[in-house]
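I am still learning, so would you mind making up any protein sequence you like and the tokens describing how it folds?
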Amino acid sequence: MKKYYFVFCKDDLMLERTGEDTYTIPLQEEPPTEIKPWTTILNITPLNNIEVKAYSIDAPPISSPNSSLSSSNYQLYEMCPLRQSYYKLPYPLYLKAGKCAELLYWDRNTKFCGVCGGQMHFHTDISKRCEMCGKEVWPQLATAVIVLIRRGDEILLARGRNFRSDFYGLIAGFVETGETLEEAVKREVMEETGLTIKNIRYFDSQPWPYPSGLMVGFIADYESGDIHVQREELLKAGWFNRTNLPKLPEKLSIARRLIDHWLGED
């Protein structure tokens, strides 16, 4: 029976080329690469009633899409960063790839028990149990909030200190222990910009497998204050309208969905 095989090498995902600019995930009876004795193959929730497997390899089977290959079989495949696979895969496969990446990351980082140091072994497909003390663990998510703040016909955009390119995004941050999502939104906005906001309402959420996040999106209205950026987090921030927007986040992010939603409003 054919299965989807999500194969990762570090942060890269193996794609199968189905045409000049079309890709999918290998769907076949056996793994598309050699399986080492130490390779752990994870069982993932099926997709459209098709079994899903995930595993990691130590080195890519090819050096580049245009390299000279010793095996004609590998000519079908291309390694692609997980983020960029959003633009190449059908969306359900991209989402499943993210889940596979998160579970492989969790497997690598839960080899030993945090209580007694014993070895952890799979108990179910998404849980491990310590062989010594019996402690059971499940994959953990880091929950973050992100908010689009409106002031009249303007929105607040910020240039993060850790952004990889010169785009502007939205205010975001991790939820702390003991606070609600809305409290986290207010706190992050105050800490990073010095602004007070109101009318916080839920927009949407998005799994963010870089490596194990959940982004929860909100829309809020400006209430008071002047912008004073937190230099440890932001390089700059300002108000922008539809006619003077800077470079925006990539389409794959909930930040861009929030901005596009605002752009589509009357």
